Amino acid sequence: MSLSPSQRLASVDDLLLYRMGRLSSTAGAMVVRLCEGGYGVTRREWGVIAKLHGQAGLLPSELAEQMHRDRARTSRTVTALLGKGLIERVTLPNDRRSVRISLSASGQRLYEALMPQVQAINGQILSALSSEEAAQFDGLLDRLQAQVQVLQDQLHPVLPKTHRHRGRSMPDKP
């Protein structure tokens, strides 16, 4: 009996995160082309639009948390969407430094036009699975996400901090 890639783990091609990244990158490229070519928004901007749909008046920090993104990157995306007129911001009267953001009418129309197309791409990808397999896959994804959270809670204090600045030398490792 031969081992599956997830059991074998013999090369980078067998690693779960590599395989999921490849799937996401390949499938995501279709959504990127649709978003950028058809609607003039980036995939990150589309994610914010989709997240704001049905959630009026989120704080930018709440949005970043819900999307599992850092605040600085989320802030840049919000600024870009404000410039495109796809979202609106309202300054809170009790705290002039805080704002709540919502979809504008234009953002809502974009969502209503783009979401069915993104759903269709997802549906076509999932059509490779039977209904039972898709339900099982959803359950497995939920279990993997729960395990990732447990692992993150355990490893976060001991993992080294990231150095994302290009050009920095890497720390010496044995």
From TrEMBL:
Database matches in SMART domains: HTH_MARR
Coiled-coil segments: none
One GO term of the biological process aspect: response to stress
Database matches in InterPro entries: HTH_MarR-typ, MarR/SlyA-like, WH-like_DNA-bd_sf, WH_DNA-bd_sf
Entry superkingdom: Bacteria
Domain HTH marR-type: start-end pairs: 13-146
UniProt GO molecular function: DNA-binding transcription factor activity
Name of the protein in its database record: MarR family transcriptional regulator
Organism of derivation: Limnohabitans radicicola
